[in-house]
Amino acid sequence: GCNNFCTYCAIPSIRGRYRSEKLSDLLAEAKKLSDDGVKELILVAQDVTRYGIDFDGKPHLIELVRELEKLDFEWIRLLYLEPEMVDDELIDFVKNEPKVCKYMDVPLQHVDSGVLKRMNRHTTEKSTRELVKKIKDAGITMRTSFISGFPGESEEAHRLLARFIEEARIDFAGVFAYSREEGTPADRMRGHLSEEIKRARADELRAIETEIIESNCDARKGSVLTVLADGIDYDRQCFVGHTARQTPDVDNVVYFTSDEEVRAGEFYRVRVDGRDGIDLTGRTKQ
Prior knowledge:
This protein is of the alpha/beta class. It has helices at 11-15, 23-35, 53-56, 61-68, 88-96, 113-118, 125-137, 155-168, 195-219, and strands at 40-44, 75-79, 103-105, 141-148, 172-177, 224-233, 238-242, 254-257, 267-276, 279-284.
């Protein structure tokens, strides 16, 4: 569930308020996965940052992760982190814990303060820019999501968002044209934009983000990355995997070849030799 009550979202009315699983239950489930040889554990919720806040009014995410680190996972990944709950302590924790992926998925949704207020997001342009800078300065890869064409979004607000994506150079961003959700406050708002305008604005933002991802891929040419093999891409006749800075089935991937046997679920050192669109390509390093 969720307690945020964003005006565009029906999740609180469908799934109710935020409810945290017991720490002991999560650890028991995680131990089964660890015992089965799982190398990467992904913690996911509508709002991971508020884990345990319904226990005693305080978040217990760091406490949970410290317990999970005692198990035999190589990587622990955190999805999704609400921006108003990402503080210096959490950023430092992600930066410095060896098993925690240097990766944060923080759904920003927009940068214009007026649009954020109508969305009932608890952030502003100023706080958003400050947060992104802190995450980037810590050397942490950032994924986010944006809603384009929200009711009342002016051309000026759209241009602000476009400039922000260009300037911030966010590593990964999903851009979604606003879609009406029946029964939500946003559905009843004035100022709904045409499908054509929403689609055009979203396409423009995606194009900007694609250029950023491609540029980041080009900068990694020649580097050697630790890749967790996910399987075989039979169309490309090569192996496919992801790094600690890529969420599986969400971000781009690493396509690679090897003269040695490759097994899914194992780690390999891959030297990057180029890219295929937004995806990295390479070969295992002997």
